[in-house]
Amino acid sequence: MKKLAIPHIPRPHDIASEVSGLDAKLAGFSRRIRDLESERAALAAELASESAGPALTPRNARVAALLGESDVVPDKPSRMRLTEIAVELADLREAFETAGRMRRVALSKASAAICAGIAPEYRTRVRAVVEALKSAHAATLSLRELTNALEEQEVEWTSLGVAFPSFIGNPCDLSGPLAHYPRDMVSQGHIGKYDLPRELQPK
Asked: What's the pLDDT tens digit per position in 106-126?
């Protein structure tokens, strides 16, 4: 069989123009998330190393100082920063998930467009496989006819060697692999029912 050339097949990224922009956004989100997580870890370690009383607003802390409650300290900027980081991280993660979904949808649509263009060539090659199997089916039946004729004459023919291709099963067995594949290709629309020998046609 002559080797067929592979047609030009574009990458989904090449025809989904929005993907490159989404990739850039995803990379930016990832960098920002890593930076914020590092900052959060450093702030948490800083707070853990300090002994602090109950946190107050700056105004309440000043009032507490006037009252002589010197053991009470105000809420530190680092605590407020942790809250800001938590909010920004939540927003970034949601944006990252949304951009990821948009990217997957864009690539899926691009793949569908590529497949639509390559479908005729794909179908041609599937039909070539089916034709090869039909030839194998006919050749196996012919071989079986000869061995059946030998057996009818009570000839012990196995000394010739049992040469049936077991990997394709019995050609007369409609539940065997040789029968299944062509029928599956009919159901997928690659070939017509009447492209097959009568004994292989789906019921």
From this structure: 999 999 999 999 999 999 999
User: Could you give the CA distance from residue 203 to residue 170 in angstroms, rounded to a whole number?
Assistant: 19
pLDDT digits (tens, 9 = 90+) for 186-198: 888 888 888 888 7
- Crossing angle of helices 18-48/77-152, nearest 10°? 130
Given a contact cutoff of 8 angstroms between Cβ atoms, the answer to whether 85 and 25 are in contact is no
State the average pLDDT for the chain: 84
Q: What is the pTM of this model?
A: 0.64
